[in-house]
Amino acid sequence: NCVFSEIVLENNYTALQNAKYEGWYMAFTRKGRPGKGSKTRQHQREVHFMKRLPKGHQTTEPHRRFEFVNYPFNRRSKRT
Predict the structure, then answer these.
(1) How many domains is the chain built from?
(2) Are 46 and 34 in contact (CB under 8 A)?
(3) Contacts 24+ apart (CB under 8 A), 24-29
(4) Alpha-carbon dihedral angle through residues 48, 70, 31, 14, given to the nearest 10 degrees
(5) pLDDT tens digits along 62-79
(6) What is the pTM assigned to this prediction?
């Protein structure tokens, strides 16, 4: 049994954190393969998800434009 808690991040993305192992997140690689939970962190792009409604469903909220957020890390930055 896998239980995840949903976390809404500052950049309006959703991350799914493992309830049993705090600090482990659901992640997928660029090829769509699952990532190891022990190797994931909240700031990684692989754990950020966007919610989408199924086709044909209307939302009751007014549509908000997508906002770009400057991410503090770039690809080639050194990890400390």
Answers:
(1) 1
(2) no
(3) none
(4) 10
(5) 666 667 666 665 566 555
(6) 0.59
Q: What is the pLDDT of residues 34-54, one digit of tens each?
A: 888 888 888 888 888 887 777
Q: How far apart are CA 28 and CA 33, in angstroms?
A: 5
Whether 39 is covered by a domain: the verdict is yes
Tell whether 68 is covered by a domain: no
How far does the chain reach from its first CA to its final CA, in angstroms? 35
- State the Cα–Cα distance between residues 17 and 49, nearest whole angstrom: 12
Domain extent for 38: 4-47
Residue 67 belongs to some domain of the structure:
no
Closest CA to 3 of 51, 50, 35, 16: 16
